[in-house]
Amino acid sequence: MGAVYLFADSLSLEQANSLFCLGPGYQSYFVHDSGSTLPDGYKKHLFDGRLSSVLVMAYCPKNCHGQLCLNSPSKVPSTYFVQVPHAVMKEGVEVITTHSIHNSLRSVGGIQILLPLFSQLDLPCEDGTAMDGDMWYV
Q1: Residue 75 · residue 53 · CB < 8 Å
Q2: Domain-located, residue 103
Q3: pLDDT of 1 higher than 70
Q4: Neighbours of 95 (CB within 10 A)
Q5: Which residue in 51, 74, 101, 110 has its CB near the most CB atoms, within 10 A?
């Protein structure tokens, strides 16, 4: 599951394009642009306060506790819901988790485990023939 947003108003073409340029890893509520590396032209359509003011609900994978996704848009008093609008994930839905390259390397044993593998890339096959380098090109 990636981030899911519901807005009370329709998005303009510029807002939709800027939202697309944020990519699937964006998991915030359009309040400030500190976590964004977009150019200023895109930022002005996302972080001018209009999107955060019409945000009805926002579910982000980083804001999940077990099977419960917590709704936490920037507007605290919501006129759209009678109760707190948290969501429960159905069976089979998994939260997307991202890891830095540093943590990913550490999970396989570190770079010291991977470096010896690179020296084996050009070794001949067990039957004595050399690997055809063209097989790696698509």
Answers
A1: yes
A2: no
A3: no
A4: 15
A5: 51
